[in-house]
Amino acid sequence: MKYISTRQQQATNIKTAILKGLADDGGLFMPEYIPQLDSEFFENLPNLTLQEIGFRVAKEFLGESISDDNLKEIIDEVLNFDIPAVRISENIYSLELFHGPTMAFKDVGARFMARMMSYFSEGKPMKVIAATSGDTGSAVASGFFGVPGIEVYILYPKGKVSPLQEKQLTTWGGNIKALEIDGTFDDCQALAKQILSDDELNQKFTLTSANSINIARLIPQSFYYFWAFAQLQKLGKPIVFSVPSGNFGNLTAGLFAKKMGLPIHQFVASTNENDVVPKFLETGNYEAKPSKQTISNAMDVGNPSNFERMKSLFNNDVSEFKKEIESYSFSDEATKKAMQEVRKDFNYTLDPHGAVAYLGLQALRQAQSDKINEDFVGVLLETAHPAKFVEVVEDVLKEKIVIPEKLEAFNKKEKKSVEFPVDFETVKNYLIEEK
Ligand SMILES: *Cc1c(COP(=O)(O)O)cnc(C)c1O
Q1: N or C end: fewer C-beta atoms under 10 angstroms in the chain?
Q2: pTM to 2 decimals?
Q3: Ligand 1 centre from 299 Cα, in Å?
Q4: Does domain 82-103+218-397 have CATH number 3.40.50.720?
């Protein structure tokens, strides 16, 4: 399997695509085609474990670049926690992606990426650059912590992540450095891109990115769509996924799964007020905007990086986009109401991101209510444990929530970060001088 940039038809292998992160032309790597799984795999799906599914799917993307034994070992390490589809109501399930070490879905992608990079770099020193709006950074830090030869630099927007998220970014020490940027997530993302494409830095160091732009983040995110089917197929209804979206990596991975043959009925791309994609589907025009701050802050993205990948999957055709994806944007007010409603009616606590996904399912049902019996099972991707957003959740639900021990441990540690203005040269000098 070759990997090609979304901008030019520059082809490379998976090892280079993962180690570089971003293509030389500034584009994102994509597999040259989406592999197909055979009918035997699908017939057997309900009998497979999450790890078996992960291995089969990953193998399609990685081919002969890694031995079966090495890949199995990596998959078993990455997926050492459950991803249950929890019933909220008759036709709504929450796919809980938050049972990993940092309690957010980004653990899945980050753990896989860290291990693949370590495998392919064969011990050569490397600097990993990651911009984060909250959860990416901690998952990346957790995934790479203590990996020899790899230094990780995490750029996060000052004052725009939750106190607990900040602790999860800044308390690692060792090979993990937290750069506190006095700007927005978009500024952090732009700085990361500048670092990764700077000639001088690239001459001095082996640099790579660890955002959702790395193809190694996307591949494992497709596993759990299959796993959800393995759990829910027995219900015998069409399955719709509502994906709370920011950079659209999670949704792109879902599109991979569908193209691999998984019969997903429909995707809902659910966003907060950062509504570039819903607007695009409505008008056909893509207009990047500055990001707006919301209570679902991991989705505060004004120019989603994976849009370029989705475009290439749909050959730039808006009508193809529309066939697969309905997209809706929701206010913080609506999100809070949804959290209250689900708590009250179903005794289930959603975090703000999952609540946006819940609203997406409601909106789809409403939009389809005129069609005859469009009865489907809606699966919302619950991307973070509610305790990760404890301030918002307690304020909205007017009740205390229990903080899992895994998270409490971070709170007890001391923050260490270096502050920076939004200025590339300053950050660059730091990288050069920092040992
Ligand atoms: C990153 C994140 C999202 C958005 O995922 P994308 O792949 O960037 O669209 C949603 N929810 C949470 C909790 C996240 O951390």
Answers
A1: C
A2: 0.91
A3: 6
A4: no
